[in-house]
Amino acid sequence: MGRREKQRPTSRVASGDEVDRQGEGGGLRTAVGLVVLGLLGGYAVWRVIHLAWTCDDAFITYRYAKHLVEGQGLVFNPGERVEGITNPLFTLLVAGMMAAGLEPRFASMALGAIAYLVVAVTLACWSHRERPATGIWLPIGACLWLTQDDLHAWGTGGLETTVFAALALGGMACLSTPSHRLRGAALGGVLLGLACLTRPDGVLFAAVGVAAPLLLRSGPSRTGPRYGFRQIVAVATPVLILCTALATFKLLYYGRLLPTAFYAKSAMDPYYTQGLTYVALYGAKHWAMSLSLVALPIVAWLTGRVRALWARRDALLALAAFAVFTAYVAHSGGDYMFARRLVPALPFLFVFLDAAVSVLGPKAGVALAASLTAGSFLPYPLFSPDRPEFVHGITDERLGYPEAVIAERRAQAQAAHAVFDGLPVRAAFGGGMCMFAYYSDLPYLVEPNGLTQYWIAERPLATRGPKLGHEKLVSRDELREHGVGLIFHHDDPPLQQRSLDFNQLVVGDILLVEMLTYDDALMGKLRADTRVRFRVIDDVLREATSDMDRMGCAYARAIFATLSPYYLDAHPGKAGPLREAMTRACVPRLAPAR
Q1: Distance, CA of 165 to CA of 175 (rounded, Å)
Q2: Across residues 66-93, what is the average pLDDT?
Q3: In sequence order, what are the residues at sequence separation of 6 or more whose Cβ sits closer than 8 angstroms to the Cβ of residue 188?
């Protein structure tokens, strides 16, 4: 009987002195964890601010938000309804902050940084809720989130990455709360529904959340199927309402359910070789986390703690969420931006690792937690810290967009706006120039990989390439067919061309423009602009005629084939001299008489 008394739960009646001693010990154990969190939190905030940056793709969101605030609709090009964003809720938040007078870069980075801290707090609260009764509390999940450098980088970036992670983690945390299960299920469903509004792949987290009551079912009075069904309904109802509202809006407004990026990145096509590489590279860089994921379950089995870990159904739920989302990332090929696609799934992995550490006992748990946290400060250097490099088509995107590059693109955009504003220009822009598209504010622009045009995004995929989402290249002839006459290139200024090709236009010395077609009306207006340099079409035709008379037949045919879509097809009356010159070049000449 004495032995049984010692094994009774700590909730037994205790004397006042004993309760005070337990409270003091528990407070001290919690204080240690709070001090560690405070130190790491301060370090993480400094790192997030120090690494603050804006991804080029974020400027697509800004252009949509700007047009919405101006009353032109949630569109990239006014008058053309194309869903070129994958983050509608985030775009609405940015638009609201822009309407309040905030600059969109600051607004998006502030949202990301706040969400980053929300994830850290959620992980800490989840860990504290399930902390062991004895030993020092060390919230390893929050510690990992606060120490990994890639998470610091994606704390800003201008995209919805951490906002999406915060909503998904918050929803699952509400579902796993032991008390008030119906209330927590409903709130969790709302947050998971908002995650679906933030990114389409939020439906994966929502699906795990709807199934969560089956895994989390516990308590002698709440194990019946009727109560479990009520919990599922409580989760699913807000998810279905929010998703149905979004789907209805998309079908009515855009005429499609899925955004251009879904097609441009071939999201449903399996690409496991690249996707598994994407996941493996993150695991290789953060080797301490990867080793712990393997080692902790083994240690739990060797020490007889597997049953205790299995009892942590909340941790198994988190592991399921991580596994489902990561499997989809691997299936779809990952991303060319290192770590970004995995960021929303990592907090769930950290919850599981936190649980695995907590069941090992006070001494072993603290030692492993400290080792794992220390190892997170020593990632394997996959990328150069100074310049962007591609590893299997994957790069540290932040390194490609320092403030100097953004300032350069903005200057190019302002130059383009000053010259082309008010003119009937339909143009494409080169890679890495979404920021140019935003700052130029030109009325009709095309992203050549399909992020802003369904007719590019929905094309059949010829072959898979390592740089995901940049595989559906559009030809110049196809751009012409859709009325696109110019391409803005990202050549770094100052431009050094002393002589221009027949189809080149230079604005000042900072912006190179390729002319797909020569528009007499447009170029006539630009001839008087001293900021612009280009070759007048009459000079081009005269020089081409002279070259044909001096060159062979093959060269003459090549010149004619090049100038036809550029100008002659639209002006057949001016093709006569060139056709005659080509005929002369291709007719065999008689040998001179002796």
Answers
A1: 16
A2: 97
A3: 170, 171, 172, 173, 174, 175, 209, 212, 235
Measured in degrees and rounded to the nearest 5, phi and psi for residue 475 equal: -85, 165
- Report the alpha-carbon distance of residue 292 to residue 140 in Å, rounded: 11
- Write the DSSP assignment of 516-548 as a string of letters: SS--HHHHHHHTT-TTEEE--HHHHHHHHHHHH
Closest CA to 86 of 159, 169, 162, 171: 159
pTM: 0.91
- For tokens 């994407």, the residue is 278
Give the Cα separation of 246 and 195 in Å (integer). 12
| Digit-coded pLDDT (tens) for 398-451 | 999 999 999 999 999 999 999 999 999 999 999 889 999 999 999 999 999 999
Phi and psi angles of residue 471, each rounded to the nearest 5 degrees, phi first? -100, -20
Letter for the amino acid at 237? Answer: T
491, two tokens? 């050549």
DSSP letter for each residue of 16-67:
HHHHHHHHHHHHHHHHHHHHHHHHHHHHHHHHHHHT--B-TTHHHHHHHHHH
pLDDT digits (tens, 9 = 90+) for 395-405: 999 999 999 99
pLDDT score of 493: 84
**Are residues 540 and 562 in contact, defined by beta-carbon separation less than 8 angstroms?**
no
Confidence of residue 225 (pLDDT cuts 50, 70, 90): low
Pairing between strand 511-515 and 504-507?
antiparallel
Residue in 204, 197, 285, 280 with CA at minimum distance from that of residue 244: 197
**Nearest in space to 123 (alpha carbons), one of 155, 161, 169, 160:** 169
| Spacing of C-alpha 478 from chain mean position | 28
Are 175 and 139 in contact by the 8 Å Cβ rule? The answer is: no
Quickly count helices (H) and strands (E) in the chain.
26, 8
Identity at 167, one-letter amino acid code: L
DSSP string, 416-459: HHHHHTTS---EEE-TT-HHHHHHH--S-EE-TTTTS-HHHHTS
Put residue 304 in one of left, alpha, beta given phi > 0 → left and psi -120 to 50 → alpha: left
Cα–Cα distance list, 66 to 103, 407, 550 (Å): 10, 19, 54
Where exactly are the structural domains of the chain? Answer: 26-390, 403-533, 539-586
Q: Look at the alpha carbons of 455, 461, 462, 468 in this order and tell me if their dihedral is positive or negative.
A: positive
